[in-house]
């Protein structure tokens, strides 16, 4: 079996733009659930609103396409109603960290047994490129025409601080590592949060001199720095490049969890 | 196994040309029915999965398939290779 068997082939090709990372991340997630041998009849995908959240519509299992920002609230309901289900959440940076910010931190605090894959493309893709809480300082968007002036959220660190049991960050260039991280996330009881840096060539790339589809992927390839190396540099007091994308596993722990069968 | 690109799904993003270690995918030059420049395959028989899938009984490498955002890359079964004897007269 491959991820193909988890897809609703009748819905393809999907609506995403050419070169949008969402498709790659969907492939990696479905490969992870397939490798683990999860039962499609006992697996539920939940998404909010946004290009990224639309992923749930292409999965052949039961899935919920919910209201903006509330994916985690719906997923919590599904999981508590039947803790034997495997519940995965697809969300975007706007969906998760802006309108859904409170659901995010409280799901981490409760440590409910969900696997959350956040496609962080640093922008609101679906609505035409408004700035999000992860838009980096200086980046152009329709709501930051002179460059974003506010600091951005580090979603992985936020999840660690809020109490999630498993937190990792990868990019859509690191397909194998990402697949492995999602597998580890599903296997870890409690809230597993996997942030994936994603490209949005249409609304982020086009405004930020990354016009070609491959430009953003090239950045992921060249600027990613493993967490271990980053920690070494910080410990030694060496300078860290300001545009480094720290990737790897941030935490894996066994704190008390909610929503697992007794 | 034979490497194929599904022309109905490919959107011509060229990400596959970036990730294959053998550079089997080359940016397309001719637009198809949908106006998309589908990448061309340069000697696809070199692909790890084409060569070794049968032997190992699982997908090998497969990075292009995981990366392709449009689920357009796959492998199809091929008839086993039959040696053909050719005689060339000078
Ligand atoms: C309550 C509500 N407010 C606003 C919107 C409009 N809206 C739709 S998608 C979206 C942003 C999605 O951004 P993100 O989660 O980053 O996903 P992306 O499209 O970038 O993948 C917004 C604001 C909405 N649908 N519902
Ligand atoms: S707008 Fe951006 S996030 Fe949405 S489908 Fe297009 S590239 Fe992907
Ligand atoms: S990665 Fe997929 S969609 Fe993009 S050009 Fe290659 S085959 Fe086509
Ligand atoms: S499976 Fe690997 S070697 Fe084969 S075409 Fe894809 S990327 Fe290239």
Notes on the structure:
The complex is a heterodimer of chains A (262) and B (90). By secondary structure, chain A is α/β, with parallel strands linked by helices. Chain A has helices at 22-35, 71-81, 93-98, 101-110, 155-162, 175-187, 201-205, 213-223, 227-235; strands spanning 43-47, 62-65, 86-92, 115-120, 166-171, 192-197, 224-226, 245-252. Chain A has one domain (21-252): Thiamin diphosphate (ThDP)-binding fold, Pyr/PP domains (Rossmann fold), CATH 3.40.50. In chain A, 33% of the residues lie in helices and 17% in strands. Chain A has an eight-stranded mixed sheet, with helices on both faces. Chain B has one domain (2-76): Alpha-Beta Plaits (2-Layer Sandwich), CATH 3.30.70. The model of chain B has no long low-confidence stretch (mean pLDDT 91). The radius of gyration of chain B is 15 Å and the shape is globular. The longest helix of chain B is centred in the middle third of the chain and has 9 residues, at 48-56. Chain B has helices at 15-19, 48-56, 63-67; strands at 2-5, 25-26, 40-41, 73-76. Chain B has 90 residues and is α+β, with helices and mostly antiparallel strands. Chains A and B meet through helix 1, helix 6 and helix 8 of A and helix 1 and helix 3 of B. The complex binds thiamine diphosphate and iron/sulfur cluster (3 copies).
Strand and helix map with partners:
The complex is a heterodimer of chains A (about 260) and B (about 90).
Chain A: H1 22-35, E1 43-47, E2 62-65, H2 71-81, E3 86-92, H3 93-98, H4 101-110, E4 115-120, H5 155-162, E5 166-171, H6 175-187, E6 192-197, H7 201-205, H8 213-223, E7 224-226, H9 227-235, E8 245-252
Parallel strand pairs in A: 1-2, 1-3, 3-4, 4-6, 5-6, 7-8
Antiparallel strand pairs in A: 5-8
Helix pairs in contact in A: 1-6, 4-5
Chain B: E1 2-5, H1 15-19, E2 25-26, E3 40-41, H2 48-56, H3 63-67, E4 73-76
The structure holds thiamine diphosphate (TPP) and iron/sulfur cluster (3 copies).
What is the compact description of this entry?
Chain A has 262 residues and is an alpha/beta fold. Chain A has 9 helices and 8 strands.
């Amino acid at each position: 079996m491959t991820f193909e068997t988890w897809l609703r082939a009748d819905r393809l090709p999907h609506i995403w733009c050419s070169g949008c990372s969402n498709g790659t991340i969907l492939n990696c997630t479905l490969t992870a659930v397939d490798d683990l041998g999860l039962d499609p009849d006992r697996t539920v995908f939940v998404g909010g609103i946004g290009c990224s959240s639309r992923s749930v519509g292409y999965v052949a299992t039961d899935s919920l396409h919910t209201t903006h920002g509330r994916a985690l609230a719906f997923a919590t309901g599904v999981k508590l109603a039947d803790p034997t289900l495997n519940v995965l959440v697809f969300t975007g940076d706007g969906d998760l960290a802006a309108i859904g910010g409170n659901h995010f931190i409280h799901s981490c605090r409760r440590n409910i047994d969900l696997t959350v894959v956040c496609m962080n493309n640093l922008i609101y893709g679906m609505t035409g490129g408004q700035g999000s809480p992860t838009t980096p300082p200086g980046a152009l968007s329709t709501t930051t025409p002179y460059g974003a002036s506010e600091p951005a959220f580090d979603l992985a660190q936020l999840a660690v601080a809020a109490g999630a049991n498993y937190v990792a960050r990868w990019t859509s260039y690191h397909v194998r590592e990402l697949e492995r991280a999602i597998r580890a996330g599903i296997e870890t009881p409690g809230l597993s949060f996997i942030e994936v840096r994603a490209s949005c060539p249409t609304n982020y790339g086009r405004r930020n001199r990354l016009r070609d589809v491959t430009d953003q992927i090239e950045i992921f390839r060249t600027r990613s720095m493993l967490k271990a190396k980053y920690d070494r540099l910080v410990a030694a007091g060496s300078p860290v490049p300001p545009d480094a994308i720290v990737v790897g596993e941030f935490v894996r722990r066994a704190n008390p969890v909610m929503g697992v069968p007794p | 196994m034979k490497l194929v690109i599904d022309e109905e799904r490919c959107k011509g993003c060229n990400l596959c040309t970036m990730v294959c270690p053998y550079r089997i995918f080359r940016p397309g030059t001719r637009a198809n029915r949908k106006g998309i420049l589908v990448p061309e395959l340069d000697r696809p028989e070199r692909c790890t999965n084409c060569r070794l899938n049968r032997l190992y009984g699982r997908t090998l490498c497969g990075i292009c398939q995981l990366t392709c955002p449009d689920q357009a890359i796959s492998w199809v079964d091929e008839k086993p290779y039959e040696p053909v004897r050719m005689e060339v007269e000078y």
